[in-house]
Amino acid sequence: MEQQKIDMYLVTNAKYFESHLIPHISESLARMDDSRYIVLQSMGLKDPTTILIISILCGSLGIDRFMIGDTGMGIGKLLTCGGFGIWTIVDWFLIQGRTRELNFQKVQRVMM
């Protein structure tokens, strides 16, 4: 894939990934076939900032975990009212990292 496409993808989507993973994504994109680039561009990645806002507003119901695909943890938060509030507060600090991690795993499956 040409460098211009790689740079454009990274500029557009860097907020969805941890910053230390950007060089790895760039290298993987360089090795990737052009036909997969269209699939990669059309992927729906979760915005970590949006998930954080949802976590702050209604994290005790587990909605934030349901949105990122952690169904088991979402059910746990729902049944315990966010771990009696403690789990909810802890998630305010962890949910963005978890969202970025899941986005990276999703992109990695396409690039393989």
TrEMBL record:
Keywords: Membrane, Transmembrane, Transmembrane helix. Its main location: membrane. It is found in: Membrane. The chain crosses the membrane at residues 50-68, 74-95. Pfam families: TM2. It is a multi-pass membrane protein. InterPro entries: TM2, TM2D1-3-like. Residues 46-93 form the TM2 domain. PANTHER family: BETA-AMYLOID BINDING PROTEIN-RELATED (PTHR21016), TM2 DOMAIN-CONTAINING PROTEIN DDB_G0277895-RELATED (PTHR21016:SF25). This is TM2 domain-containing protein. It comes from Nemorincola caseinilytica. The lineage of its organism: Bacteria, Pseudomonadati, Bacteroidota, Chitinophagia, Chitinophagales.
